[in-house]
Each structure stands twice: as C-alpha cells, then as structure tokens.
Amino acid sequence: MTQALRRLFASSSLVPPKRRLGELPGTRQTYQDVMAIALPAITELVLMSLIGSADIIMVGQLGRNALAAVSLPSQPRMIMLALFFALNVGVTAIVARRKGEDRRKDANATLRNAIMLGFVLSVIVAALAVAFAEPLMRLAGGHTRTADDALVLRGAVEYFTIMAYALPINVISMCINAALRGVGDTKIPMKVNLVSNLVNVLFNFLLIFGHLGLPRLEIRGAAIASVIGMATGMVLSIVAVVHHEGSYLRISRRDNWRPDLKILGAIARVGGNAMVEQASMRFGFFIYSRIMYSLGVSLFAAHNIAIQFLSLTFNFADGLSVAATSLVGQNLGRGRRDLSMLYGKATQRIALVLSLFIGAGTALARYPLSQLFINAGTPDAGNVVIFAAQTMLVVALMQPLQMSAVVLSGGLRGAGDNLFVAGVMMVCVSFFRPVMAWLTVDILKLGLAMTWLLSMSEMVLRLTAFYWRFESGKWAFRRV
C-alpha cells in the first residue's frame, strides 16, 4: 500500500528520468509550492461560489419563478463573458511566461494592453447585449405560453439587462486579477473578490427584501447588488496594481498607454485559441440549458440548485487549476520543462484526493443542502428539493473526473496549448453533452438525474484526452 502511494504521489515518480533536466524538488516541497498558489485561489473561488449561492438562496425565498428568472440568463451572460475569459487565459499565460523569463517590464506592458483591449471590447459587447436582451432570453428557452413562464421571462430580461450595463466594470477587474494569478499572486485576487462579493450579499439583503428603509426590488435588487459588488471589486483591483508596493505588477498613468501591436498580437494569439474553447463551451452549455428549461419551471429550478453545487465543486478544481497554469507557465519560461510536468501532475494528484472527500460530502448532505435554496412554503417546493437532491448524487459521482480534467487543462493552458484544449471541449461540451441531453429528455423521456448522468458522461472523454496530452509532453515546446 505504501509503495503504491509512493508511486502515485512522490515527486520522483511524477517525472520519468529521461525527461529530467536537473534536480527535482522533494515531494513535500513540490506540494507546498502548489498549495502556496492554490490555497488562496481555492479560498477565493469557493468563497465566491458560496456567496453566489447565498444570492440564489435569497432569491429562492421569492419562489420558483424568481429562482428560474435569475437562472435563465446564466448561459447568455456566460456567452457575453466568453470573449473576456478567453483574453484572460492569454493574459495569465503570457504574464506567467514573462515572469519566468524575468521580463517584468513586458509583463506590465501586457497588463496595460489587456486592460485597454478588454475595456473597448466590453463596451461593444455590453451595447449589443442590452439591445438584444429579450431575444437572447427567448433563445435561451424563455417564452410566454403560461403565466409563470411570462413572469420568468420578464424577470430574466430585467436581470440580464442590468448585468450587461456593468460588463466594462467587471472586465477590468477580471483582467487585473488574471495577470496577478499569472505571476503567482493569488492572495490579492482572493481579498478583492471576497470583499466585493460580501458587498454584493449585503446589498442583496437590503435591496431584494427592502430592509433599512430601502425599496423592495426583488429580482432587480439582486442585479443592482451584483453591480455594486462588481464596482467595489474593480476599485480594489486597480488599487492593488497602482498603490501596492510589493506587487510584481505595477501600472501608472505615467506609463506608456499606447497600444502595442506586438503585445496585442500575442494576447490575441493565445486568447484566440482559448476563444475557440470558450465559444464551444458556451454554445454547448447554452443548448444544454435550453433543453433543461423545456422540462418545466420546477425541474429547471431543481436543475439550477444542482448547478450551484456543481459550480461550487468546480471552483475547488479551478483554484488548483490556477496553480497549474501559473507554475507550468513560469517553469517553461525558465526552461525547466520537467518542473512544469512535475507541478502539473502534483496538482492533479491533490485534485484527485480532494474530489473524493467533496463527492462523499455532497452525497451525504444532498437533502438539507437542497432545502436551503427554496422557500418550503412556495408552490411545488417539495418536488424541487427531491429532484435537486437526486441530481446531486450525479454531482458527487462526477467529482474525480471533473476535478482532474479541470486541473490538467489548466496546465495545458499555462503552456499555451489552448488549441488542443479547445478541440477537446468542442467535441465533449458542444456536441456530446447537448446530444445526450436531447436524447434523454426528448427521446427516452428520462428524469432529471438520469439526464445529468448521461449528458455529463462526456467528462470521461475529456479527462482521457487531457491526461494523454499532458503525458505526451508536446505542450512543453509551444512558444508564447
């Protein structure tokens, strides 16, 4: 048993002797290096997810229609953000590589150009999103065939429009935090996002229900509270790179803010490959969400309760993925391909162990956790809880596959191997998942839990592809 654990976890077992370019750090040091970056990132993302869940819990007290109304815009909003997620993948990978190459000036120039590019594009995307808010909600599955559906559609349009107006604010904060993660500074983004999300929760409490003399705005209040939280995050992010003396990244109004075509080209090249991935993912998730909405308001509400827990567990993996991206990119910049492989594999091993504990906890606590998200006194709340709890068993089962795949894809992104990641996501998320959902919902007429199980079986393919690619080592020779 001890020998098997050593082969699985020891640093000397993670990199074959023929691929070593120098001395490897010891096992303890390897995992300490990973956790030094991963722990703040995990804390940040998980706390954000918990706070986001608190938002949904508050809205859920208004009933299933309100819960569905704030859930329906989720995928259109993610499509709106997809371009900026992709650009930030490029920012993180390039800044990590520049730090490894000891090119601090170029790292800061990358940040400045990314901020300018992100702001201009976000204004354009926000204007389009506001103009086409209702058609997008209808495309996502919203309709007016029943009184409940009409209420859901109206609330969804209102919520989405307010969030679209705030897109430039959100994008600036996202860009700065992506660059900070690239240099391995995950503590500042953690603090920024923790404060901004706590502000969001506070104003949710005040504006959704109308406390302390403020008006009761319900769904509109939830959206306005989110915007206030985003604005807080943007201010704190800017302060972090303008006034924080210890930060590797520093910007000033006295810097050269003229666009640098070479830097913009590098961001576009790496981010462009990531955009293929984002577009594939968002298309797949959009179609998947539309199919799930066709099950009806109650099942869609249950589906989105389960989504909250899938997102929460995903954020544990995403926090580890930040460490994989940063350490792989930095060590490639230093010319140590072997260390990049070591840290990528070590991070995946941590994800594997963590996923087993998270899966067990999710399965055991699925009923009381589901009950948090909807007021028991509202129509059909009991069925919503039952369907959500059944689906959370699938969430638990998928943890080892999901977390390992996310971490390995993060390592590949750190190397700039985004095109391969994009191809895998296109096949798995854009094709396999929605096709399986369509078969189970429209042809086989199976329940919500079985729909999740069959549609999410694509994670087996995803993990197999990412594991094979990382083991091959081809990603280590990509230029950024």
What do you see in this structure?
With 480 residues, the protein is mainly alpha-helical. The protein has one domain. It is 80% helix and 0% strand. The chain is built from 20 helices and no strands. It has helices at 2-9, 11-14, 27-60, 64-71, 74-100, 104-131, 133-139, 147-165, 167-182, 187-209, 219-242, 261-293, 297-333, 337-364, 366-371, 381-397, 399-414, 418-443, 448-455, 458-472. Helix 12 packs parallel to helix 18 and helix 17 (399-414) packs parallel to helix 20 (458-472). It starts with a helix and ends in an 8-residue tail after the last helix. The mean pLDDT is 85.
In short, what is this structure?
The protein has 480 residues and is mainly alpha-helical. It has helices at residues 2-9, 11-14, 27-60, 64-71, 74-100, 104-131, 133-139, 147-165, 167-182, 187-209, 219-242, 261-293, 297-333, 337-364, 366-371, 381-397, 399-414, 418-443, 448-455, 458-472.
